[in-house]
Write a structure and sequence with these properties.
The structure is a homodimer.
Chain A: E1 11-16, H1 22-25, H2 33-39, H3 75-83, E2 88-93, H4 108-127, E3 133-138, H5 144-154, E4 160-164, H6 178-186, E5 190-194, H7 209-214, H8 216-229, H9 232-235, E6 241-244, H10 251-265, H11 276-283, E7 284-287, H12 296-306, E8 312-313, H13 336-350
Parallel strand pairs in A: 1-2, 2-3, 3-4, 4-5, 5-6, 6-7, 7-8
Helix pairs in contact in A: 4-5, 5-6
Keywords (chains A, B): Hydrolase, Lyase
GO molecular function (chains A, B): carboxy-lyase activity; hydrolase activity
Protein name (chains A, B): Putative TIM-barrel fold metal-dependent hydrolase
């Protein structure tokens, strides 16, 4: 949608998916984990039970590396296709460990070992090789003690900006996650939420990808609501959460609904000290992709209903099939200051470890 | 919220909860079901695992029957407190069989027997005793053959206007439900959706009532999306669904999201022949309660985003704790024609078995 606008410079892209080939993790894995992959007929788990949405699966067809490797596996090609032409000042890597370590419910130690190897691989191959790239600490949620150890181990890296907390059957407001939040807060890391689960109905996948993809924001609504009403931000006042790849057009509904419930039912959750919509504005940020096609009027109406133009941050979701271009995805005619916020300044404020002077 | 407006006459109230005392079902139950209740230490299942939201549980404290019986159990008191003072032209009963028959997963026959007894009790004690009251056919979703028999048995009653389809772990777009939709369509019955389940996250209840209550619309979003993308309305073109007690402020988000997904991914669901937002406008209606407090401007903004003022129908949710008054819940200053639609004409069009001439 939208007409072409001027090339964006100084972009801070809050959702870029680098991808690992499993064999690249081997040098980073201790035994016996390495041996399980090399010698024991290791089969990578399949993430989704669907026919893929596009000709190149979940990826842009043109993002396949020229040597034939899958999209997102090669830094040089990512620089050429994404970072250089779009004038990225910074990009946050959000991974594509497919599946996330959290899906191995029965084998906590292997899940934690894989997350750990992945983080080392990410630092060596991406964060240390392009100054524009920043990272996400991958952890296995089913092993909170291992997750805390991993945050302590790599969270101090100057370019690790957030902990990517996997979704599981326990919602994030549960005290189960307190040690993880405590470790994140200690290292000035934000929490990143990227759906990695079936968001709907009894934890089952719906019949079609189009349904699952439509309802991704439901997984986001569940977590926002649960975090707020379980008092997580009263306990961890510096914690902030980036809601990645869920868009933002559901937020006005959720704010309005939570505020009304808070007015009616706050006696049940006396630890919640603030109107939920205020907490959203203070502790959450939402990445734009996948941006629905909207006119300027429609776009601004949603922003108006959110009551803030400071909690929406642009993301490309490169190299996925529904990639949003920084020069084409936003409706034309938006105010320059607001566009600048979405393209860089909101993310810069959100992640304290990003360069704090515009380059 | 909202200032008092003039008394509403000719109201069609699309969500009124009558309640049964289990012993009242005994005369309507065959053996052995009756004996299970009278002789076998029958324990009524508990619907929700929470401390109740208000001093009278889920009910208005002043709705308790003066003789001490729970709210919603007495027609005379309902007439005095709800139907007469508010000038109801009609009210749709949506039940409070607590729990719904569908929650007895292991005992299909008993669930169907209870639904059947309930329908007979509903006809004798409510539909046949007040000309203003219309009914919902209760069925047990885990027993589709029994459900069809029940629709055939009581769906021909002139005052049964819809089938109240319980929620279960199978979403409504699944072919599992086709026999039920076929039977409903045959008898000119609409489908009513009233949440009776934990709407979020792996079928588990969240920790607090306030979370569950905030996320009720999620259960509605799941079903709307699933019904549309599974092609139910192409197969049953006369089927319509009333979304009860989920409000409507989530609908703009859902329409926009589904339309975008349809544009991007329709190749996956070629049986879907129409833009989802158009299907919503043609096949769905949304009851207002629980209405968030909104200004006229905010209210109209949401209606504008829905693209229709003809798919929202007023409901009181009597006798629940968060009852909406027809004279107080809507923001003041709305256009009279639009108010008249919400208060009666939209419901009248939606349910063909309601009186079709305004009385």
């Amino acid at each position: 949608m939208a007409t072409k606008t001027e090339s964006r410079t100084g972009l801070i892209d809050t959702d870029i998916h680098e991808r690992v080939m499993y064999e690249e993790l081997l040098p980073y894995l201790e035994q016996p984990w390495r041996r399980y992959i090399t010698d024991c007929h290791w089969i990578q788990e399949k993430h989704m039970p669907y026919t893929q949405p596009a000709v190149a699966g979940v990826d842009r067809a043109d993002a396949r590396v020229p040597d034939g490797r899958p999209a997102g596996t090669d830094l040089g090609f990512m620089q050429e296709q994404l970072l250089n032409p779009n004038g990225h000042e910074a990009g946050i890597l959000t991974g594509a460990l497919d599946p996330s370590p959290s899906s191995m419910h029965g084998w906590y130690e292997m899940a934690t070992a894989l997350a750990s190897a992945y983080n080392d691989w990410q630092i060596d191959n991406w964060l240390d090789r392009d100054e524009r790239l920043y990272g996400s600490v991958q952890i296995a949620a089913q092993d909170p003690a291992g997750a805390v150890r991993e945050i302590e181990r790599v969270g101090t890296h100057p370019k690790m900006v957030q902990v990517l907390l996997p979704l599981d059957d326990i919602l994030w407001g549960d005290p189960y996650y307190h040690p993880i939040f405590e470790a994140a807060e200690k290292h000035n890391l934000m929490i990143g939420m990227h759906h990695n689960e079936p968001p709907v109905h009894y934890g089952k996948w719906p019949r079609y990808f189009i349904e699952w993809h439509t309802l991704i924001p439901v997984a986001h609504m569940n977590q926002v609501t649960n975090l707020i009403f379980n008092g997580v931000f009263e306990k961890f006042p510096n914690l902030k959460v980036m809601m990645i790849e869920g868009g933002f057009t559901y937020v006005p509904f959720l704010m309005r609904k939570m505020d009304q419930q808070y007015k009616d039912l706050r006696h049940e959750v006396p630890w919640v000290t603030k109107k939920p919509s205020e907490t959203v504005k203070e502790h959450f940020c939402f990445t734009t992709q996948p941006l629905e096609e909207m006119t300027k009027k429609e776009f601004l109406q949603v922003i108006d209903q959110m009551g803030s133009e400071d909690i929406v941050s642009f993301s490309t979701d490169y190299p996925h099939w529904d990639y949003d271009s920084p020069t084409e995805a936003l409706p034309p005619g938006l105010d320059d200051t607001f566009v600048r916020k979405m393209l860089s300044e909101t993310a810069r404020k959100f992640y304290p470890k990003l360069p704090q002077k515009e380059g």
